[in-house]
Specification:
Elements lengths: L16 H14 L8 E2 L1 H8 L3 H13 L3 E4 L3 E4 L7 H17 L7 H20 L2 H16 L5 H22 L6 H15 L3 H29 L1
Antiparallel strand pairs: 1-3, 2-3
């Protein structure tokens, strides 16, 4: 099993070995660098990260708790499978949780956070113009994760974070070459404007419509793919 090039994110510096391994391997799984059902050998990972097998096993336990890998006696450890019919299982609770956050005003934005959202969305637009598919998805992912991380309820943040990972994993694996996210940029802008007005009701409607459109697009792509089978 060839592992990706050893590039660690800057914000991983200062974290424990198991945390670095967890976030790095999670990124590989979400972006499709590690494929569904691909076998994972803890000794190979230990050699790769120059650590003992203990932090590898700790990271694997965290990944398994997020349903990104599965371990079983006799079969070892592998990346979990992912099917097109997972769309409803992932997006319906994701939409519901985000709607809950905004309708109950469990989220706050100051100018600093709003400026950060604008910056991410500007970079998102640049990637769309460059047709940089992998970066488009990564920045869309970053926008929505940053948005929900301003929530005042840590449980909702944790649940959404897990659902985001699976949502974007699905998009990277099946739709990276077919999704048109150009409309998402203008939708992001409308969400930001509502947040600037502190109009959480409008923000909740805009976020809900945004994700419902995403689900509609995904289902359309799935239907086309099924017709080709």
């Amino acid at each position: 099993m060839p592992l990706p090039n050893k590039t660690l994110e800057k914000n991983y510096k200062g974290k424990t070995s198991s945390s670095v391994i967890f976030y790095t391997v999670k990124r590989w799984i979400v972006t499709g660098q590690l494929k569904p059902n691909e076998k994972l050998d803890d000794m190979e990972f230990a050699n790769y990260f120059s650590v003992s097998r203990t932090p590898i096993r700790d990271a694997f336990k965290l990944l398994e708790s997020k349903n990104l890998i599965i371990s079983s006696q006799g079969r070892g450890t592998a990346v979990t499978d992912l099917q097109l019919n997972n769309v409803k299982d992932i997006y319906i609770p994701l939409i519901g949780l985000q709607n809950l956050v905004f309708t109950n005003e469990l989220i706050e934005f100051e100018n600093e956070e709003l400026n950060k959202l604008k910056f991410i969305n500007d970079e998102f637009e640049k990637s769309i113009h460059k047709k940089d598919t992998s970066n488009i998805l990564a920045l869309d992912y970053k926008f929505h994760k940053f948005l929900i991380k301003q929530c005042k309820n840590s449980y909702i943040i944790e649940f959404c974070d897990t659902l985001f990972d699976h949502a974007y994993r699905l998009e990277y694996l099946f739709f990276s070459n077919t999704l048109d996210l150009s409309e998402s940029h203008s939708e992001h802008n409308e969400i930001i404007k509502a947040l600037e007005r502190k109009d959480m009701y409008s923000a909740s409607i805009l976020v809900k419509k945004h994700w419902e459109r995403t689900v509609h697009v995904l289902n359309t792509v799935i239907a086309k793919q099924n017709r080709l089978l």
